User: What shape does this take?
Amino acid sequence: MSREKKFQVIDIVLFVLIILITIMAFCNKRFSMMVDSFFLPEERNKAYYDMLNSPSKCFECKELSQNGTKNLLANYLRSGDREAGYSITVNQDGTFLISGNYTGEYDASEAITPSGVDLNLPSGDYVLSDGGASSEDSVYIKLTGIKLLIGGGTEYVTIASLPGDGSFHWDRDPNVELYCEIVIRPRASLDNVEFRPMLLKVEDNANQDYQPCLTPNYDWKKDETDGGVKFYKYDINKGALDGEIVTKDDWKIMVNSMRFQMQADKAVIDLKDGHGIEIRKCEYPMGTYGKLNVSMTVRDGKEINIEDYNEVMKVINSNSEEIELSDVRDIYSYLKALGNGKYTILVSVSDDGVAALNREAMELLRKLGVKTNLAEQNIENVVNRAYYRNSFYCVLRHGKNVAEKIGEENLSLSGVLPDDAEYTIESSGQNTGGVNSSIRIDGNEYAMNFRGMNFVIYDEEQHFVVDSVCFDTNSGLYCHRQAEHM
Assistant: This one.
């Protein structure tokens, strides 16, 4: 063999070796780390080596996949190239820990993919949650819809985004594809920020199976004494803290998000009955339980350890302090409070009054004197469809039924209260073709006239109306008061 051919063979062998080394450097984590240690002046971000075998990688939360979950997300994370300074750890409990300093110039997106669930969601109500982990300055989670237009174009629409309100209603559209993503902003500095991405279907608004306690509202408190203070606000109906609607595990998730992810000065848990728990970041895990004032602050309350679920339940359930009816926004607590006073209760339905009514609320109404079974006893079907969108009124006094009627037509009633004050009640369900609620006493209108059950409470000892409120017993059991709609 000539000298020239020997050099050609050597060149070919060297070329093949270089190709093999390059392939191994891109495919084998240990080999790549060894090569980089010789040639690179600085160590690569460790997440880079996890991405060698493919441009993207799916992490599966096996524990959630095997045990089953109501969560429509959280089982998988499809991640792109993370060489830009941050990394993600996927835990078996479904949480993602994000760490590092993102050096990119544009938003980085980490796609969350469903676990065998088509994200072309059926119509219904949903809650998008991150477990309370978002930092409004550096990282957030959002659900986006991609609409396929005629002619091949696309239109992007944000369905829900956190921080913010994660609750949304979705009308199924086969022309819209949905995807959820964690977005990291440029110059984000992250130290084990914990995400628990969740897309929860609200199957039963009445029972509130999926409380927004996992999705706190991020807001400013305006208080002259403290100035502008940022805080998380969790809205949890006290009546839902029964171990079934809001479980001990739900509570643990919430308090852990306060402990590790609170990007604010404090957190406030509003129990919707005039009371709440205030937890200042510097005093965690100790909080103060008591009456909430208008600035969402507890004054002169009782100190409790919010990590001790049993202690929290004992304190809030043993509370004997009287509260004003006008402070109560939880239908369960409200109906219980009505049974403790000398009231005449006037009720009128507008639009519909049964779609969200559950067995617990119906039992409390029955104790007040309601005779009509507005909610079925079947756990899987609490709605009495025979009365859906019907008109309904009732007058209750000391647990006795003074008057009551339900029907598909417009209903009205005139009567006299024990102190000779005259009243009139009108109710129009949607089946009448119009919606209306009216409760007049001595000619003055007191009904809120919102969808659901409108209550007017007349105090027989003080001889005047002490409260007017509407609970949306069609959807969500939300509370409407005059001060909130001025």
User: Anything to note?
Assistant: The longest helix spans residues 3-27. The chain has four domains: 3-39, 47-201, 221-317, 325-485. The longest strand covers residues 139-148.
